């Protein structure tokens, strides 16, 4: 394998298939997020309804995550991923059906609204399993020495799909309406379902067959909370998403503050994601494994500063530019965090660690939506975002001072050790 080969992971056929199906899935998921936010806010004209959406997805995702991690470690990953996608297709079809002319003309608005909340809640249950399943599957598709490269391409694909999904979501609402946009989303999910059959079944690496569920969950949580590097990285990203993020109330900014409409909503979402994907693609050529801890701290600090400026902005061009640079910083932190988790996690507990990651970061997206919606209603959207950015800066400063192992982390040494181990095996 060529050292620092930017296309190392892409030379593996199954990993390419995985990226393609993940792009289709996340593209549809991102569109669906934008469509639901727009539809519900248009129906209620209440910022609190955006918080309810986040809460409906957060509660099951967070509460079931530890158990989901246990299940993922015990089950075959390809088939579990296939089942998650199949169930997600039911949600997409349900939303498509709920927004049809027949339903809208015969059902009362509260019934449609509560049905949407119900499907979002079901989606939260699936989210508890999606995260650890994907995290575990990636490790089974590529050798350890190219984990950083695989993590970069996987994260870039996720962000790239988010870019085009969010952008298309906003524009398609304006062009063809909510109902037909949801129909396209359902087709994308079915494409992802078909592609997963091209990946072969993978071995189950968990050796604790006699572990009880309680012992299994305890082992995963103990590993995370005893490793200062992993715990610090997860905490930083959780705080940035929970308080610093404002994606859930982009609708408020697009509609009420910037007067940009659904197209503007798509542009705001795309600006944040495009900055991330460009940065992550750059890291395939310029590895960020040296002085990793300092780069993580700087990137999240920069993200917080950008969100403060975004909250204060009333100009569309300044808001878009600020979100782009926020995405740049977010891209660095995402690649670093995924690389840390892939390199530091034992093979037999990837599902459980992936589940804890979902609790810290994945679920914080939904909880962040709750926080953003409530704060926007109390303080107003601009002040809510600025306060969140300020909290992010404070937390970064505290962790940077208190967590020395994270601050001095250099992943290049771990990568070199894995390369030596694989050479010995060969």
Automatic annotation (TrEMBL):
Source organism, top-level taxon: Bacteria
Membrane-crossing residue ranges in chain numbering: 15-36, 48-68, 80-100, 112-141, 161-178, 184-200, 229-254, 266-288, 300-326, 378-401
Keywords, comma-separated and alphabetical: Cell membrane, Membrane, Transmembrane, Transmembrane helix, Transport
InterPro entries assigned to the protein according to its UniProt record, in alphabetical order: MFS_trans_sf, TM_effector
Localization of this protein: Cell membrane
Entry membrane topology: Multi-pass membrane protein
Stored PANTHER family: ENTEROBACTIN EXPORTER ENTS, INTEGRAL MEMBRANE EFFLUX PROTEIN-RELATED
Protein name: MFS transporter
Organism of provenance: Winogradskyella echinorum
């Amino acid at each position: 394998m060529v050292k620092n080969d930017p296309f190392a992971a892409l030379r593996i056929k199954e990993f390419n298939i995985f990226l393609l199906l993940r792009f289709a899935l996340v593209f549809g998921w991102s569109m669906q997020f934008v469509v639901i936010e727009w539809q519900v806010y248009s129906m209620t004209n209440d910022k609190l309804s955006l918080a309810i959406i986040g809460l409906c997805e957060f509660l099951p995702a967070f509460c079931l995550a530890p158990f989901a991690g246990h299940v993922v470690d015990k089950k075959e990953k390809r088939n579990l991923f296939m089942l998650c996608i199949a169930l997600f297709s039911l949600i997409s079809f349900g939303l498509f059906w709920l927004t049809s002319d027949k339903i809208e003309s015969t059902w009362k608005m509260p019934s449609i609204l509560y049905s949407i909340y119900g499907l979002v809640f079901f989606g939260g249950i699936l989210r508890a399993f999606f995260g650890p399943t994907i995290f575990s599957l990636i490790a089974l598709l590529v050798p350890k020495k190219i984990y950083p490269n695989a993590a970069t391409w996987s994260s870039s694909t996720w962000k790239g799909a988010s870019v085009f999904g969010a952008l298309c979501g906003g524009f398609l609402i304006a062009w063809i309406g909510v109902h037909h946009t949801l129909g396209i989303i359902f087709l994308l999910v079915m494409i992802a379902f078909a592609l997963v059959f091209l990946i072969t079944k993978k071995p189950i690496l968990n050796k604790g067959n006699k572990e009880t569920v309680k012992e299994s969950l305890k082992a995963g949580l103990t590993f995370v909370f005893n490793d200062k590097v992993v715990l610090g990285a997860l905490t930083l990203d959780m705080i940035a998403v929970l308080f610093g993020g404002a994606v859930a109330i982009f609708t408020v900014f697009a509609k009420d503050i910037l007067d940009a409409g659904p197209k503007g909503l798509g542009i705001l979402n795309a600006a944040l994601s495009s900055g991330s994907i460009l940065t992550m693609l750059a890291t395939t050529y310029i590895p960020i494994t040296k002085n990793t801890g300092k780069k993580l701290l700087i990137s999240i600090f920069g993200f917080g500063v950008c969100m403060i400026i975004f909250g204060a902005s009333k100009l569309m061009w300044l808001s878009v530019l600020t979100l782009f640079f926020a995405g740049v910083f977010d891209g660095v932190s995402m690649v670093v965090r995924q690389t840390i988790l892939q390199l530091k996690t034992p093979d037999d507990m990837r599902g459980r660690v992936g589940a804890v990651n979902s609790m810290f970061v994945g679920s914080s997206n939904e909880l962040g939506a709750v926080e953003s919606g409530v704060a926007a209603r109390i303080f107003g959207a601009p002040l809510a975002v600025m306060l969140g950015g300020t909290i992010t800066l404070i937390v970064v400063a505290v962790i940077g001072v208190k967590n020395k192992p994270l601050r001095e982390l250099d992943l290049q040494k771990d990568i070199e050790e894995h390369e030596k181990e694989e050479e010995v095996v060969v």
